[in-house]
């Protein structure tokens, strides 16, 4: 399977970073902190909101959807840079973790329930 | 550029979800909360740690690096599912946000400093 | 008004800390990270939950309520230690911030709406 | 020991809330989300910062210290409101949790190390 897109996104993030000489700031530690701050920007969309209310807002308000897309992008960029800083193959990690989750959440036991694997 | 890999990862996440009939839980709201919880699992790596200490740990302890890779995977999976739930093209969003950041952080002004764009 | 209780809680947290020689770890930086990790433990209570569902769970399940109380305590302890490390009077800070919020959210404009002050 | 201060702070927060008819928004669920957002505001102080760098900034920059104090206040207010919404006695919870921590982290084993209790 072609890894073109993740590699492409990573290459663009690296080019952006290196044009600004920012690699010195991009330790795994710092990138984890920044990723958490961007995750909190996503969490803002849920503040004083219901599940249904957010769904409707994203349906009806293109600016809100666009803003959410940009926050998703921020998380993605930090995730790519973090993987890069830590020497992690993000694609391979997802494949591996899905296999672990397959074992933790057998489809017949986990169907239709949101129970944690420890309690299944 | 081929989008194969993000599409491939998303297809795998969807297959995992649908085999368990979990789409009912996968609202944008719920996925944002779960993404934040996984981001916090990443943040645990920084607890009582220095920047240098974490870098050395990831160098010298393959289990720690593997654990970090799995947490990165968790964030990635929720980010893919969130984009899917909200009808967002994650690849396009990163390209767009990088263009915005190019304008916010001109290379000549931002070189070597971690100042926020509002203060540049 | 007597400040006994916050002072009492802080004195107990300090005694706990100093009996373990942990002051060396208790920089503002580290305490902020740990406070965020404890906040995430609170956030776990909202995972795959509705607002109503969590309210009912806290009503009907004393163990869940007890677990929530302990997570609240963890946040409180880190908040006291953080204030201590940064030389902040937590009581005074709340009084000050309430006054700011009084100005930002005039009662007649803010009544019954959850709008951010920037948009009021 | 007198509980005056926590009770006093809670009474002030309640008065602020009720003057705006905000109790309808103040479910445990919503307050947990908002507390996490305020915790993230604290985390911003650690972004692109070292432990030493933040300590020096708080020493030398009264505005930064003031800003940190206000973020601490925001966490405190949400914590009081959350305890109130969930029927939790915050003071009692801290006393209880300190007793648990005393057992988990015996002073002679935990002295000078930041190891988690599971690994002590």
From TrEMBL, chains A, B, C, D:
Q: Spell out the InterPro entries in the cross-references.
A: dCTP_Pyrophosphatase, DCTPP
Listed transmembrane segments? none
Q: Which parts form a coiled-coil structure per UniProt? A: none
Q: What is this protein called?
A: Nucleotide pyrophosphohydrolase
Which species expresses this protein natively?
Crenobacter cavernae
């Amino acid at each position: 399977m072609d890894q073109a897109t993740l590699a492409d996104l990573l290459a663009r993030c690296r080019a952006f970073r290196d044009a600004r000489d920012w690699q010195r700031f991009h330790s795994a530690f710092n990138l984890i902190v920044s990723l958490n701050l961007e995750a909190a920007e996503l969490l803002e969309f849920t503040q004083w909101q219901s599940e249904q209310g957010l769904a409707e807002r994203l349906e009806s308000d293109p600016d809100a959807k666009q803003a959410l897309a940009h926050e998703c992008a921020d998380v993605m960029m930090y995730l790519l840079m973090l993987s890069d800083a830590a020497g992690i193959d993000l694609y391979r990690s997802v494949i591996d973790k899905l296999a672990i989750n397959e074992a933790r959440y057998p489809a017949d036991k986990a169907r239709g329930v949101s129970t944690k694997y420890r309690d299944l």
